[in-house]
């Protein structure tokens, strides 16, 4: 069976992390989220993929190639402008001739569920019982048949959400061409499925676990869930007087220097230097070529490659882009004094602990302090001793 993965979206909610890369290439446990999804499908016995690419498509093509390095075969279809999920699926018209799986590229789903969904009767939608259905499109059912599909609303009619994974038949392509733009100006796959709903033909498959990765703070939960199964593996050098607790993975050419204390799960990429005297707490992923130096503490964070956190820094519950430099003593706070949920602009992260989202190439002057929920655009430069808060545009000089 072929598996179509939608990976063309712009990922606006993930900005600034998606300024220079597609959302599906953002790392969980140091590997692109799309690779984890493909791995789950491969474990379910699926080896033929069609990736629908568009926004920064070169990054996906370069990393995955024809799929042979991953034990898979990958073909590509291109969605030139991002006009919605139905439009993205339409890009594979003529490429599939039998029932096929369709997966959104920005989610975590396990291989047992992919296997179960691929064995269902098409057309079928994977659904997940959510404790916060108001954040998603939901469905109503009678038995295992879908009776309604509804957009996100503050008063959802149920708790079964559309998980963005389907088993479909090629007949769907004739429906796609007749769709009209939705209220938010997109061609929506859910509109295409309404015909099946009206005839009572669309069934559900209940997922055992699922998470979507649409907002920057979702990366922290998805990263932590990937690291739950981490097996410790040390390929680099660990100097004397280093304490490693829990699962720690260290890449080739990396060194953990004396006095460092790491509580896994923690994955450290290739060619990194950690310490002396650094403290890293789980669940943290540190990309290749990073430096975490003396008296720097990291906790529950995702750090993209080539970032330097060299002296007396604290970073908690944050997502940090690549090629950033933290001046000595610069820190990111992750908890409000009143312990309320951290807001990132007008978006509620629904987390009591959240630090910041930092784009690529951000430079922090010494002793700068970042408030919880701050979003710092790529290429921003923060002046020394500055209090940083709110949303900072790309390439801004912030502070005096
Ligand atoms: P969305 O999360 O709805 O859209 P997005 O990824 O562009 O993100 P944002 O809302 O933050 O801008 O997309 C769900 C999936 O569908 C995701 O895997 C990307 C994919 N997609 C496309 O391939 N093409 C599109 O035109 C859209 C809108 C989404």
Give me some keywords for this one:
400 residues; alpha/beta; binds thymidine-5'-triphosphate; 2 domains; globular; UDP N-Acetylglucosamine Acyltransferase, domain 1; single chain; nine-stranded parallel beta sheet; Spore Coat Polysaccharide Biosynthesis Protein SpsA, Chain A
Rg on CA atoms, Å = 22 Å
Residues in helix, %: 10-25%
For this structure, the CATH topology of the largest domain is Spore Coat Polysaccharide Biosynthesis Protein SpsA, Chain A
CATH class of the largest domain: Alpha Beta
Strand content: 25-35%
CATH H-level superfamily title of the largest domain: Spore Coat Polysaccharide Biosynthesis Protein SpsA, Chain A
Taking all residues together, what is the mean pLDDT?
A: 96
GO molecular function: glucosamine-1-phosphate N-acetyltransferase activity; UDP-N-acetylglucosamine diphosphorylase activity
EC number: 2.3.1.157, 2.7.7.23
Pfam families: GMPPB_C (PF25087), Hexapep_2 (PF14602), NTP_transferase (PF00483)
Protein name: Bifunctional protein GlmU
């Amino acid at each position: 069976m072929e598996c179509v993965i939608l990976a063309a979206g712009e990922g606006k909610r993930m900005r600034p992390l998606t300024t220079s890369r597609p959302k599906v290439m953002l790392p969980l446990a140091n590997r692109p989220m799309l690779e984890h999804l493909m791995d789950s499908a491969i474990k379910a016995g699926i080896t033929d993929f069609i990736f629908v690419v568009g926004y920064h498509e070169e990054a996906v093509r370069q990393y995955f190639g024809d799929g042979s390095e991953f034990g898979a075969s990958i073909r590509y279809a291109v969605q030139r402008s991002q006009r919605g999920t139905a439009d993205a699926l339409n890009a594979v018209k003529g490429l599939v001739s039998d029932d096929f799986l369709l997966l959104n590229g920005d989610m975590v789903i396990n291989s047992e569920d992919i296997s179960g969904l691929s064995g269902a009767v098409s057309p079928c939608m994977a659904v997940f019982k959510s404790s916060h259905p108001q954040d998603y499109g939901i469905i109503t059912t009678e038995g295992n048949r879908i009776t309604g599909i509804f957009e996100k609303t503050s008063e959802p009619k149920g708790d079964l959400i559309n998980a963005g994974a389907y088993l479909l038949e090629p007949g769907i392509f004739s429906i796609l061409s007749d769709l009209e733009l939705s209220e938010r100006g997109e061609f929506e796959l859910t509109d295409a499925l309404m015909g099946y709903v009206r005839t009572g033909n669309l069934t559900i498959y209940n997922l055992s676990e699922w998470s979507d990765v649409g907002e920057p703070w979702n990366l922290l939960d998805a990263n932590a869930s990937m690291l739950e199964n981490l097996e410790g593996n040390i390929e680099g050098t660990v100097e004397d007087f280093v304490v490693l607790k829990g699962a720690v993975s260290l890449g080739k050419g990396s060194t953990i220097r004396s006095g460092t204390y790491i509580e896994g799960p923690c994955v450290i990429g290739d060619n990194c230097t950690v310490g002396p005297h650094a403290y890293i707490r789980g669940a943290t992923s540190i990309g290749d070529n990073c430096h975490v130096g003396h008296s720097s503490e990291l906790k529950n964070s995702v750090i993209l490659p080539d970032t330097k956190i060299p002296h007396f820094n604290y970073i908690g519950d944050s997502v940090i882009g690549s090629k950033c430099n933290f001046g000595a003593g610069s820190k990111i706070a992750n908890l409000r004094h009143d312990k309320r949920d951290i807001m990132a602009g007008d978006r509620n992260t629904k987390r009591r602990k959240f630090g910041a989202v930092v784009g690529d190439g951000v430079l922090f002057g010494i002793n700068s302090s970042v408030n919880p929920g701050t979003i710092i655009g790529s290429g921003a430069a923060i002046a020394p001793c500055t209090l940083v808060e709110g949303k900072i545009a790309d390439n801004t000089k912030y502070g005096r």
